[in-house]
TrEMBL record:
Protein name: Aspartyl/glutamyl-tRNA(Asn/Gln) amidotransferase subunit C
GO biological process: glutaminyl-tRNAGln biosynthesis via transamidation; regulation of translational fidelity; translation
Pfam families: GatC (PF02686)
UniProt similarity note: Belongs to the GatC family.
Classification via Gene3D superfamilies: Glu-tRNAGln amidotransferase C subunit, N-terminal domain
GO molecular function, one term: ATP binding
Subunit details: Heterotrimer of A, B and C subunits.
Keywords, alphabetical: ATP-binding, Ligase, Nucleotide-binding, Protein biosynthesis, Transferase
Catalytic activity of the protein: L-glutamyl-tRNA(Gln) + L-glutamine + ATP + H2O = L-glutaminyl-tRNA(Gln) + L-glutamate + ADP + phosphate + H(+); L-aspartyl-tRNA(Asn) + L-glutamine + ATP + H2O = L-asparaginyl-tRNA(Asn) + L-glutamate + ADP + phosphate + 2 H(+)
InterPro entries attached to this UniProt entry: Asp/Glu-ADT_sf_sub_c (IPR036113), GatC (IPR003837)
Amino acid sequence: MSIDENTAARVAKLARIRVEEADLPALAQEFNAILGFIEQLNEVDVDEVEPMTSVTPMRLKRREDLVSDGNRQGEILANAPDAREGFFAVPKVVE
């Protein structure tokens, strides 16, 4: 795949980047270099490579999935400008 100047101008417009007409050939060349690098990456055989979550081998920390209300109602409501009966109090917006 090759990017021409018209396509480079369209990509710049979609990305909302102002590119001067004189700079379009250089931009198209950069896009083509990026696409060439991607083609090189597509040639690498990764069939027997496991996906990684990190470059260093480590297990993800796991915690037990328990449902809880957090027991922090008082702390949370302390930040509210107006709280009544254990809830946030807000102005009525529907008549």
